[in-house]
Amino acid sequence: MSQLQNRTAIVTGASRGIGLAIAETFIREGAQVVLCGRTQETLDAVAQQLGPAARPFACHVGRPDDIRRLVEFSGPVDILVNNAGTNVAQGPCLEMDDARFDKMIEINLKSAFRLMNAFAPGMCERGSGSIINIASISGRRPQFHGMLYSMTKAALIMMTQSYALELGPKGVRVNAIAPGLIQTKLSEYYWKDDVRRNAQIERQPLRHLGQPEEIAEAALLLAGDGASYMTGQTLTIDGGYLLNSL
Q1: Which of 68, 87, 113, 121 stands 20 to 30 A from 60 (CA)?
Q2: Is 190 a catalytic residue?
Q3: Given this structure, which CATH class describes domain 8-236?
Q4: Active site residue: 149, 163, 190, 241, which one?
């Protein structure tokens, strides 16, 4: 039997990369998936590719009104994947300004806060649910010239633990995934350049560039009954990059 049969999931940032891979994997396992992204036309094309179990809905996660419309569209939800994120603030700490600070907080952190507060009450009422936040290894160790990205992902990990602590008694599990270097549009600065890519991979015991599907399989574990005794955890999936011995 499919692992997510008769369950409904929302995946933000679902039009490409890790979000698309998660949506594909959840649908493969029997879920109905609401695809959340900024552009309806793009989402419609993705939904056509994925089939009738995919329900596209344009939603800018930085806008509260859009999130309210998403709640109305989705109905009861069993799984929420907060995957949407941005990294528009690369550079030295002393060159960051209020505008970039606020943008990173709005998209990488406040959106997850708003979405969890929108969908977790229904999960609590039904006594079950799984929330998965896509963090980063940059939330565990600071990324050089990436202070704001690292800061928001570290805060997302702590937010995951806080929600897990409070929602667990109500049957709702909250976990996170911290990917390393994955071949997506967001991280192409690091993997498109041969020197930067090879320098990263040579520090990993598993010496290949991570793929979105490898993150999606971890999300499937957290979404399903196989992780029924797991909450408040952050799965680091980085090919071993953070191991101290290298």
Answers
A1: 121
A2: no
A3: alpha beta
A4: 149
